[in-house]
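Researcher: Please predict.
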Amino acid sequence: MRNMLAFLAALVLIFAGLGWYLDWYRLGTSQISEGHRQITIDINTAKIGQDLSKANEKLQNKLADKNKTLTREKKSHEQDLPAWREKHKPIDTEEFFDVEHLDRFLER
C-alpha cells in the first residue's frame, strides 16, 4: 500500500512539474483584503490539447518507423533463409555412419 501511495505521489509531482514547465497552468496570488490572499489557477486547455496532439503525432511516427524497420528486417531474413537452410541442412545418417569410413578412421 505504501508503494502504491509513493507511486501516485511521484506521478502527481511529475505531472505538476511537467505542467508548469510546459505552461499548462499558471498559479497566481493576490491580496484581496487585509490578512486575506486569493490564489488563482489558470489552466491553458488549448496548450494541453496542442501538446498532447504533438506527442501523439510523434509517437505515431516513431511506431511507423519501427514498423518499417521490422518489415525490412523480416524481408532481409526471408531472403537469407534459403541460404541458411542449405548451410544447415540435416546430416545424411547413412553417409555419417558409413562402416567403411569408420573402419578406415579406426585403422589410423
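Model: The first strand starts at residue 25 and ends at 33.
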